[in-house]
Specification:
By secondary structure, the protein is α+β, with helices and mostly antiparallel strands. The chain is built from two helices and four strands; from the N terminus they run ββββαα.
């Protein structure tokens, strides 16, 4: 079953598309059937910059671990002092 749960946000940074870097300006996150990952459902993250795109498809457990790793890194005292 498709969830159609989708969240979009503006981002500022860069992404690597395999051949070159491009400016990333938005991210789209959704939970649905993946295009490539051998999963019934996946958390999908598309990072866009103009017409360029990098896609990530993760199982739910991996997505949770990644989210926690990102938050743990951003909440580290050394990082907080720089942001």
């Amino acid at each position: 079953m498709c969830t159609y749960v989708t969240t979009s946000t503006e981002v500022a940074g860069s992404a690597y598309g395999g051949d070159e870097w491009f400016r990333a300006d938005r991210a789209v996150v959704y939970f649905d059937h993946p295009q490539d990952a051998p999963l019934d459902h996946a958390l999908c993250v598309d990072v866009w910059g103009g017409r360029e795109r990098v896609a990530l498809e993760l199982d739910a457990a991996s997505a949770h671990r990644l989210a926690h790793a990102i938050l743990d890194t951003l909440n580290h005292a050394e990082v907080k002092a720089l942001t």
